[in-house]
Amino acid sequence: MDTEKIKEQTGINKVIFKKEVTSTNDEILNEKQNDTLMIAFFQSKGKGRYGRKFFSPENGLYFSYLLNEEMTFQQSQFITPIMGIAVSYAIDEIFGVNTSIKWVNDILLDGKKICGILTECKVEKNICHDIVVGVGINVYQTDFPEDIKDTAGFITEKKDSDKREELVIKIMQNFLEFWSEDRDSLVEKYRKKATFIGNEIKVHKNGDYIPATAMNINDDFSLNVKYNDGTIEDLNIGEIFL
Fold first, then answer.
1. What keywords sit in the KW lines (predicted)?
2. d(CA 88, CA 98)
3. Single pTM value for the model
4. By percentage, how much of the chain surpasses pLDDT 90?
């Protein structure tokens, strides 16, 4: 990874590359400097939502970005979907594929998860600081553990030329551009990628998996669902299964 090239092409203040880390989301906080990007090719303790482990083999791309601003907790809810758009657009452009977004933090290719996004922050009196958004992408073919082999995928089998540097540059260019873009435009981008809208889903709620129909992505990136009993709900947090 050419960190100087990444700095030059993204405008990010500090870029760090480590071949191996425990978790980029954890280790980047040791830098204590906003507008910092940490990149790795392997995580020994990759993290997912709800305390889950995130499988992070050497054929992947893992990076975290420490934002250079504070914001309300409500504003911080936009980080994950905006990064999702940035990742999806970048993968499509560089690899010539057609990815989709599964609300709220997964990127899919041919129905399989190739990327997860995790945003973490410290909250005091509804103000978020030390805001980190982490991205893990299965770039090249790998052997997945038994428990995820049916749901996990990768972008490409080919590794003739390593495109991970190009990919992280494009993702961060997209994210920084989209972050200042008009919200309505971003929501439309997200809706176009949310190909599950109109389909039957299951909402994971209080330990149950409740059948519903995904109706729409709202203007605040929440998910509007209609349960089988006719009840309608806007989900701001949570998890769905397709």
1. Ligase
2. 8
3. 0.94
4. 83
